[in-house]
Amino acid sequence: MTTLGYTAPVQAAREGGGAGSPPPVYGGGGDGGRDDGGPNYGQRLRRARLGLVVALAPIFMFFVSIVSAYIVRQGLPTFDERTNTYVRDWIPVQLPVALLLLNTGLLLASSMTAELARRQITRQAALAPVRSIPGVSLGRESGFPWLGVTVVLGTGFLTGQWMAWRELADRGFYVATSASSSFVYLLTAAHGVHLAGGVLVLLYAVAVSLLHKPVEARRIVVDVTALYWHFMFLLWAGIFALLWFMR
Amino acid sequence: MATSAPVHAHAAPQGFIRRYVFSLDHKVIGLQYYFLALVAVFVGMFLSLLMRVHMIWPTAVLPLVGEIKPETYLSILTMHGTIMVFFVLTTAPQGGFGNYFLPIQIGAPDMAFPVLNMLSFWTTFVAFVVLICAFFVSGGAPLHGWTGYAPLSALTNSGPGEQLGADLWITSIAIFCIASLMGALNFITTTLDLRAKGMTMFRMPLTCWAWFITAILGLLAFGVLLSAGILLLLDRNLGTSFYVPLVVVNGQVMGHKGGSPLLWQHLFWFFGHPEVYIAILPGMGVASQLLSTFARKPIFGYKAMVYAIMAIGLLGFVVWGHHMFMSGMSPYSAFAFSIMTMCIGVPSAIKTFNWLGTLYKAKIRFHTPMLYAIGFVSLFVSGGLSGPFLAQPVLDIPLHDTAFVVGHFHLIMGVAAIFGMFAGTYYWFPKMFGRMMNETLGRIHFVITLIGTYAIFMPMHYLGMAGQPRRYSQFTELAYLHNLLPLNRFMTYAAIITIAAQFIFVINLFWSMFKGPKASDNPWESTTLEWTTATPPPHDNFGGHTPIVYHGPYEYSVPGAPKDYVMQTDPAQVASH
């Protein structure tokens, strides 16, 4: 039922909308932040973080589907043509545990250094406007290259994973040896590819810092990659736990 | 009147390459998706014509393919399905119209990540090229159907097309998955973060809701298909046994052992069923938008429509097993999947009821887009009603591998979604190209296409119940189907006429693009934001302004208003309906 007709134009956004909800306080994002003509880094950071969180969903689904295949395949009996019976053919893979633990330590350390790099650049970005005032000194800022350390540790992890593969091959576990070894190679390779993507982005961030781009723009890259990096660590911890406890 | 806030206008890039080829503008990218899908749909349609002709003249020598052998038929069938599902039904409604109109309808200057948007189109393009290459490699295109069931798809010696052709097919699908994931990421972030001031989620047009939910479905489904495809590639090329059990092909024991073909089916259909909704939800959005606009009435039950889209999306993820009743799956799981599938009937019925409620006692303007929107509802109902039949294992088992299923999914997923695209094309053409399409040609195209599609796909239900199998290249020799041959001939004639009628559409499209009468900014008297801007829209969509939104999207026939509609940006107060 209509209770109110069309009335004179008003300035304020009408409450109620098409379905009774009030207009948002935040304006839904929009482009209003560009009023000053300059890039709105806060808005871009928020957008990049949101994009990252959305992007983590399919990565998570990708690994969930492989893990569910792992669990299903592990429980399946195999037809044995010699005995004409169904047998369990899942051979537990002899993982190079010490090496993998060392790799896990490296990745955890790199996750921490990524976080330190993120906090460092956040501080730099926050202080950038103050620093630009002539005559203002904030004292010496720690310039420790956390970003570079993260890249080194991340590359170290990938190298360690490569060595773990060599170790597996030496123990006689190849990609097609058994379903269990196929999954070990698949999960570690898929994780490695995702982490290598993170390393490339960090290298880009390092390159950008050398090119003297605004610190706010660099901050967005470092911030989002650090969050991605933490996710990669958690993902690896989950994969390692699966491969170890469900071998 | 404060209907918009000024912002700095972006200048359009100069130069042909940056402007039309590697463009970052969502409107250009939308058109690129649209025309890619248009090329793909003609390839797919040509393949369907070959199949229909072969069905009634099995020994005929056909252009480009020669005489169709059983394996050729299966290749054509596979490529028809793959091209249509991925490069038409997924590409045009979401990538095409969604890309063009989602940012404008929510009042944004572009997508959230324009570079990613460009990459997602060009990745889709590469996927299409890789797929088409499968026709031209040794052994030809794969035989395993668009569903790629293992072990047929997982062995390289299981058929002539299963060599390099199948590898190209899987590679194409994997590339397509990555492209779709990039697209979905952009759609979701744009919808959540770039809405104009006043554009609450519940003031978004239903098209935007449909694109948003479709993007969420794509985001969760394509990652699973990607992993399934990678496992398949490993099985084929590295000798792993994810999907292949101990199997003997042509007297030769293959090296695989212990894999599960059922695993592929589970992973594939976990993607495959949401994919059905990825194809149809944007069509539902367009139908809702158009029914309200041309009935000059607010959409009946806006919030119910939104919740129904969400419910369909959610339920779409828990029903994949209904494609697998014949697979030897546990009957208990079949029961659960059956119940969940029938539950989808509830939100679908809510949507249909609301569409009819919108049309009830309306002064309908029967323009071509509206005809297609009504056609969409008709096809959705006709195709949807056989869904609850097939959802029951006891009925699905006899009907499963028959033409009944082909009729069902073509009506609801194929033609209904295509009608959504036609509706969208006729409706948004003035905004996209600044000119009107020809009404007479549009009406002729509609009448032939509607009658034609019913004539092709409705009899398939009877054929299926009479036991005509699907995927068979030849059944003219089967005695028990002799009586049905005239019906099959009728369907082929209908297909030829319907396909010929599509050239009316193409002629209308390209003729109107250059010679059609100039369109005003709002020729249909619609209320949503794309009709507030210039025709065609400027590079940053609103010419240096961002709109401020005051109303819901369907304020038609407002009592006391000077016109029978109130734009979303009109600051005047209107009554609640």
The percent range for strand residues of chain A is under 5%
Strand order of the largest sheet of chain A: 1-2
- Domain module tally of chain A: 1
In N-to-C order, the SSE pattern of chain B is EHHEEHHHHHEEHHHHHHHHHE
Say which CATH homologous superfamily of chain B is assigned: Cytochrome c oxidase-like, subunit I domain
CATH class of chain A: Mainly Alpha
Please give the count of helices of chain A: 5
- The span between the termini of chain A is 65 Å
Characterize the biggest β-sheet of chain B. 2 strands, antiparallel
What is the CATH topology assignment of chain A?
A: Four Helix Bundle (Hemerythrin (Met), subunit A)
Radius of gyration of chain A: 26 Å
Multimerization state = heterodimer
Poorly predicted ranges of chain A: 1-5, 8-37
Give the SSE string of chain A: HEEHHHH
Biggest chain pair contact, residues each?
Answer: A-B, 61 and 84 residues
Structural write-up:
The complex is a heterodimer of chains A (247) and B (577). With 247 residues, chain A is mainly α. Chain A is built from 5 helices and 2 strands; from the N terminus they run H-E-E-H-H-H-H. Chain A has helices spanning 41-75, 97-131, 146-170, 179-210, 215-245, and strands at residues 78-80, 85-87. In chain A, a hairpin with a 4-residue loop joins strand 1 and strand 2 (85-87). Chain B is mostly helical. Chain B has one domain (26-547): Cytochrome c oxidase-like, subunit I domain (Cytochrome C Oxidase, Chain A, Up-down Bundle). A two-stranded antiparallel ribbon of chain B has the order 1-6. In chain B, strands 2-3 form a two-stranded antiparallel sheet. The longest helix of chain B is centred in the middle third of the chain and has 35 residues, at 261-295. At the A-B interface, helix 1 and helix 4 of A face helix 6, helix 7 and helix 8 of B.
List descriptors.
heterodimer; A: 247 residues; mainly alpha; Four Helix Bundle (Hemerythrin (Met), subunit A); two-stranded antiparallel sheet; 64% helix; elongated; disordered N terminus; B: 577 residues; Cytochrome C Oxidase, Chain A; two-stranded antiparallel ribbon; 16 helices; 6 strands; globular
